[in-house]
């Protein structure tokens, strides 16, 4: 048996074991993203809201609704449609809220230091960039509640990385309060803004042209219902391609764009990465 087949078999065995213990599971593609809609639910024909708050009336056994597809039913997990998904799966995911759990996802050494100083000890699972702290109790999920800190519980999925170590404790009030904290203040001074080209002049007709462009960019990000990462990047790219070479963009403009992106759940780090990638794509990183 080849290694890929072993990996697929291990994913399925892990999923069935988790389901038997009451943890709803689903397969993940490479990149930690769920599988796309099945043909019966393409373009949300079933009335659900894939990867969002409500799964809709669909009873299809295929993994077609992101977190809402997570199940403990072994008949579904080992069904023909799911076996096809396991053949391409890169990992196993689970729905923490469905298992009565909350995952505090810590993505940096600073976030881990904050957790050690602020949160009660509980079960810890090492991740690629940091740690998952698991608590008993479900709550509202939220991204970027603090720099490098996401909360994954109800209506969200998390990648299964092993059982972890330590005794799991009750979900503390300090974690429950994180999603209702004030939004993180954007610090655009850390984000490069293209300077005016040497001897160049702004080609735009009036300041209103720039203001309209920024407002449209904010609206485009705010209206995104899916593929938020890609929408933010494309919007940043469009703004920089139009206004990035004349020097009329200011830190106030980037703050508005970052604030709109963070309101859609993007972390400050993801915003900065998307902005830098757009600069690099347009060759503006040294302008």
How would you characterize the overall build of this protein?
The protein is an alpha+beta fold and 287 residues long. The chain is built from 9 helices and 10 strands. The relative contact order is 0.11. Mean pLDDT is 81; it is low at 1-5, 49-55 and 196-200.
Instruction: Give the biggest beta sheet.
Output: 6 strands, mixed
Q: Care to count the β-strands? A: 10
Order of helices and strands: HEEHHEEHEEEEEEHHHHH
Mean pLDDT: 81
This entry's quaternary arrangement is single chain
* Share of β-strand residues: 5-15%
What is the rounded distance between the termini? 54 Å
Radius of gyration over C-alpha positions, nearest whole angstrom:
22 Å
Which SSEs are present, and which pair or pack?
Layout: H1 3-20, E1 25-29, E2 33-34, H2 74-77, H3 80-88, E3 91-94, E4 101-106, H4 109-118, E5 123-126, E6 131-136, E7 142-146, E8 149-152, E9 158-159, E10 169-170, H5 173-176, H6 207-223, H7 228-243, H8 251-263, H9 268-281
Parallel strand pairs: 6-10
Antiparallel strand pairs: 1-2, 1-3, 3-9, 4-6, 4-8, 5-6, 7-8
Helix pairs in contact: 1-3, 6-7, 6-8, 7-9
Question: Main attributes?
Answer:
alpha+beta, 9 helices, 14% strand, six-stranded mixed sheet, 37% helix, 287 residues, globular
Report a brief summary of the structure:
By secondary structure, the chain is α+β, with helices and mostly antiparallel strands.
């Amino acid at each position: 048996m080849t290694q890929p087949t072993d990996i697929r078999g291990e994913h399925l065995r892990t999923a069935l074991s988790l389901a038997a213990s009451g943890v709803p599971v689903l397969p993940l593609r490479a990149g930690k993203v769920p599988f796309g809609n099945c043909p019966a639910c393409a373009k949300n024909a079933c009335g659900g809201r894939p990867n969002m708050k409500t799964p809709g009336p669909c009873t299809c056994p295929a993994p077609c609704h992101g977190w809402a597809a997570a199940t403990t039913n072994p008949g579904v997990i080992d069904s023909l449609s799911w076996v096809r998904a396991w053949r391409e799966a890169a990992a196993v995911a689970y729905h923490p809220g469905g298992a009565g759990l909350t995952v505090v996802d810590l993505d940096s050494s600073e976030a881990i230091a904050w957790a050690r100083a602020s949160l009660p000890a509980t079960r810890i699972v090492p991740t690629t960039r940091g740690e998952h702290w698991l608590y008993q109790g479900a709550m509202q999920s939220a991204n970027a509640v603090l720099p490098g800190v996401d909360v994954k519980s109800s209506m969200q999925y998390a990648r299964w990385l092993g059982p972890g170590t330590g005794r799991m404790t009750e979900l503390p009030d300090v974690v429950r309060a994180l999603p209702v904290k004030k939004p993180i203040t954007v610090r655009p001074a850390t984000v490069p803004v293209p300077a005016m080209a040497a001897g160049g002049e702004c080609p735009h007709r009036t300041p209103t042209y720039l203001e309209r462009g920024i407002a449209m960019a904010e609206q485009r990000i705010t209206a995104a219902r899916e593929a938020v990462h890609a929408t933010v990047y494309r919007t940043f790219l469009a703004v920089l391609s139009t206004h990035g070479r004349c020097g009329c963009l200011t830190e106030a403009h980037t703050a508005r764009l970052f604030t709109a992106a963070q309101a859609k759940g993007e972390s400050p780090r993801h915003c900065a990465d998307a902005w830098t990638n757009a600069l690099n794509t347009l060759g503006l990183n040294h302008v």
